[in-house]
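As a warm-up, study this chain.
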Amino acid sequence: MNRTRSRIIRFLLRNGPSTCGQIGRELSASRSTIRRQLGLLTEAGLVQRSSTQFSASAEQVQLHAAVLEASFQVTVMPP
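Now compare it with the structure written out below.
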């Protein structure tokens, strides 16, 4: 995962639902960069959007990490 997406997820887990502008100000990134990364995170199911705010849940992030780990072990490290 790219660094900006990781930082966005950590920000949302720490601070709760936030707007694109709030995230961009905190991470010192442009709104267009944040918007693009939030779109990718939303498509992946790691971030949820409700009207103008975005949020992330620790449970959802952990689930995606577990799925990725299992996929990695099957593909890269077969038994």
